[in-house]
Amino acid sequence: MTHALARRGAAEPGRSPGKAALFLLPALLLLGALVVYPLVYSLFRSFFDASGDEFVGVGNYVEAFTDPRTLVAFRNNVVWVVVAPAAVTCLGLIFAVLTERIRWATAFRLILFMPMAISLFASGIIFRLVYEEDPGRGVVNAALVGVHDVFSSPSPYPGARPREGFEATEEGYLCTATVSPGDAVLLPLVGYSPQEVPADARPVPQPKPGVGEVRGAVWLDVSAGGGPGRIDPAERGLPGVEVEVLRAGAVVATTMTGGDGRFTFADLAPGEYSVRLPPDNFTLPFRGLTWLGPALVTPVIISSWIWIMTGFAITFIAAGLSAIPRDALEAARVDGATEWQVFKRVTVPLLAPVLLTVFVTLVINVLKIFELVFVIAPGSVQEEANVLALQMWQVSFGAGGDQGVGSALAITLFLLVAPAMLYNIRKFRRERS
């Protein structure tokens, strides 16, 4: 009777190995076509030259790792692996713990998880615009410029400069001709748009010499009517320009131009003086930082990836938090432990397996990073932001067109990813058993 039931049970559809294999066959075919075959072919192709006809052995591997671009890419991958997964795991842990007890925890986690719903390519386009150098387009520089201008007033005439007859120094534009009390000095400026001149600026009159005074005028010399360096009736003075007068290299008096651009230095002792326009009059406005330049492009891309992947870490760690026995946490609190001690000595040790799994998964993701670097980094600095996956693509399909070296890089990247993948697979199997 028992044997008959056993035979009948063995014939049940859910326990038939043949039918199970039949259902698995489509997945196995896809796995073979999309994973196994490319891997085997890349390994085979990595031992042949660019044309695929001549066997070169490990020559492609030697060429790949003697290329300075590959060394830069490998260095950047090390930076990514050291910084990015640890930062995302820490942020995910902090946010998951902090939001555990609040009502809107689910909404908060949903908002942080939303970037995961966007492809990395689309996210790269977004961050390319966010870090645009032009404050009119880049959000980050727009915020920086706004904060900067609150604490530091912009110069009145950025980019303007005097005509000939001035020497550019670190302290400003110094007039090469000396003046004495009773003289009148003309200070024509160029390099500034007439449309940007203040609306209250008035036409500049010809300054007249005064006894014991140095008088002058500062105006935008753009009209051709009076000739270069001469005041034309249609030209307007520049109000609010700071002017200094020096004697023996030391500043003895400072004044500001009026609404018509004129200024006066009174009560000067007899002697020769120099006139100078300080650089604060013409300093170009703060335009933010060059985020996508060679120095900052890699940290910027890493920060973008952290923003995208933090939601992934929060989701997994929050699931691990929900599985922690609450009596262990309450027992620690009853024993007098502070929240920090509970977090450090109870929560983190119990979450260690989850944190390690999240970290290893992020390491795998980081080693294969490609889209963000390709999209965010401008072509002029892509070499400084290069990573192994991007280098593999450039060598195989870019200007190089050498799929032998590209396959060698692909196999190298696989060997770097494989240990982390095997660790995760073994861990999942142990948990299931």
TrEMBL record:
Provide the protein's localization.
Cell membrane; Secreted
Entry's InterPro entries? MetI-like, MetI-like_sf, Sdr_B, UgpAE/MalFG_permease
Q: Which UniProt keywords apply?
A: Cell membrane, Membrane, Secreted, Signal, Transmembrane, Transmembrane helix, Transport
Topology relative to the membrane, per the entry?
Multi-pass membrane protein
Which Gene3D superfamilies does the UniProt entry name for this protein? Answer: MetI-like
Q: One Pfam family, please name it.
A: SdrD_B
Q: Which PROSITE patterns match?
A: ABC_TM1 (PS50928)
- What residue stretches are annotated with the ABC transmembrane type-1 domain? 74-426
**Where the protein is mainly located, per its record?**
membrane
Q: Which CDD domains match?
A: TM_PBP2
Q: Give the residue spans that cross the bilayer.
A: 21-44, 78-98, 110-131, 305-325, 346-367, 405-425
Signal peptide extent: none
Q: Which family does it belong to?
A: Belongs to the binding-protein-dependent transport system permease family.
**Entries under PANTHER family matching the protein:** BLL4140 PROTEIN, DIACETYLCHITOBIOSE UPTAKE SYSTEM PERMEASE PROTEIN DASB
Q: What name goes with this protein?
A: Alpha-glucoside transport system permease protein
Q: What is the lineage of its organism?
A: Bacteria, Bacillati, Actinomycetota, Actinomycetes, Pseudonocardiales
